[in-house]
Specification:
CATH architecture: Up-down Bundle
Helix content: over 70%
Shape: elongated
Keywords: Coiled coil
Order of helices and strands: HHH
Mean pLDDT: 79
Strand content: under 5%
CATH topology: Methane Monooxygenase Hydroxylase, Chain G, domain 1
Number of strands: 0
Radius of gyration: 18 Å
Number of domains: 1
């Protein structure tokens, strides 16, 4: 029985470690896409540069969205682990990241329509 508990704890810890890593990667990617979108375009009105910038931003947004979905899956797996008090904070962080990502999506959509 103790062996099962030990295996379960290792599994929970592995999921938690991956969860923490995914949060960190989401934050890094969101910062990168914000920096990308805030960077000036060298030649005013350069459509190709704007299109490339938007394409890269959209790829980054897609990747971050996938990470956030994975975080949601991890959250469901860890839901029964009431002793993991940091999960509540992680849930709030995940929600803030999703909110920020949605704002970025809206900004890129505006740019795409104006491009």
């Amino acid at each position: 029985m103790n062996h099962l508990s030990s295996d379960h704890n290792k599994t929970v810890q592995a999921i938690l470690n991956d969860y923490q890593e995914q949060i960190s990667l989401c934050l890094t990617e969101i910062k990168k896409v914000i920096n990308l979108l805030d960077a000036p375009i060298m030649i005013s009105g350069n459509q190709q540069q704007l299109s490339e910038k938007l394409a890269l931003a959209n790829r980054m947004i897609t990747q971050t969205t996938e990470r956030l979905e994975k975080l949601e899956e991890h959250s469901q797996l860890l839901q029964n682990q009431s002793h993991l008090t940091e999960l509540e904070n992680y849930g709030e962080i995940r929600e803030l990241l999703a909110y920020q990502l949605e704002k970025i999506k809206q900004k890129t959509e505006k740019w795409q329509y104006s491009a």
